[in-house]
Amino acid sequence: MTFLCCFLFDLGFWVSGILWVLITLHVFEALGSIKFPYVYPDPESRRLRAAVAKDSGLESDYILAGCGADELIDLIMRCVLDPGDKIVDCPPTFTMYEFDAAVNGALVIKVPRKADFGLNVEQITDVIEHEKPKCIFLTSPNNPDGSVIDDEALLKILELPILVVLDEAYIEFSGIESRMKWVKKHENLIVLRTFSKRAGKENLHFSVVSSEAYQQSRRGHRTSAITGNNPNTSA
Ligand SMILES: Cc1ncc(COP(=O)(O)O)c(C=O)c1O
Fold this sequence. Notes:
This is histidinol-phosphate transaminase. With 235 residues, the chain is of the alpha/beta class.
């Protein structure tokens, strides 16, 4: 019995050792095949943005690549909010908006969705008029219920003096078209997309923001990348 245990232990040791060596060789081989490993990667992700532009039909000047939608949600808040500013959140929905608002010292005004998970546009309008929040986070399809925001509701909200961040993380599963191209018509709209759901590539964690404000900043018309045309925004 003791002999068997020792044998199995030794076997495990050797097998894991050999596997480790094989994996290391594989990693070295992959690293060795990179053409310019000593050069920083393109900080503007130009090739990636060009590919996304081709896929989406929206010019790459409007597109910003980030490390997952989570990073971009935080980035938007850092660009737009000062501590004490307000955002609108429509629960039940993705909880990162509330989390990142807390990280950025912002207050969250909650306008709960209706029983059918539709947006309460009347209450959203009221809150925006009276509380003057700087941005609203809308998710379509919504996490967790999958409901989609219709054009009428979205257009009404886009007419209000607020930066609208439309999170389309699950758009590929809805059968409806992305509103990415809407950013050309609506200066106060930012659309978020991600590969983590579409391609099941959680590890790649790449996502895009499309926004008119970002496009203008690239052409030198604005100083900050993501501001939106928001009368409630002092930036
Ligand atoms: C609605 C929604 N937006 C964004 C994300 C985060 O996406 P990413 O994996 O690109 O950070 C999630 C993740 O669950 C999500 O449900």
